């Protein structure tokens, strides 16, 4: 079953100028990863250091494989520009509502 993952991040104010490039470079691999259906990047209208990445995955297994990849050989430079720990929330589409 497809899932949607929301990755809520805050960038250090002093890293804001480079944030677009770092996020773009990180998402090249994310979007190319097996099972990724797409990623949208949302920017808070009142706080330009606050981003939410909306990721669509074919399945929870594909998302889990991606998270494992990012924790190991696919570690990105995104963590270096964050002001705190990202918050990841995953959702399944309700089909019976």
UniProtKB/TrEMBL annotation:
Gene3D superfamilies: 3.30.70.100. The keyword Oxidoreductase applies. Pfam families: ABM (PF03992). Keywords: Monooxygenase, Oxidoreductase. It comes from the Bacteria. The keyword Oxidoreductase applies. It comes from Cryobacterium suzukii. PROSITE patterns: ABM. InterPro entries: ABM_dom, Dimeric_a/b-barrel. This is Antibiotic biosynthesis monooxygenase. Residues 3-97 form the ABM domain. GO terms for molecular function: monooxygenase activity.
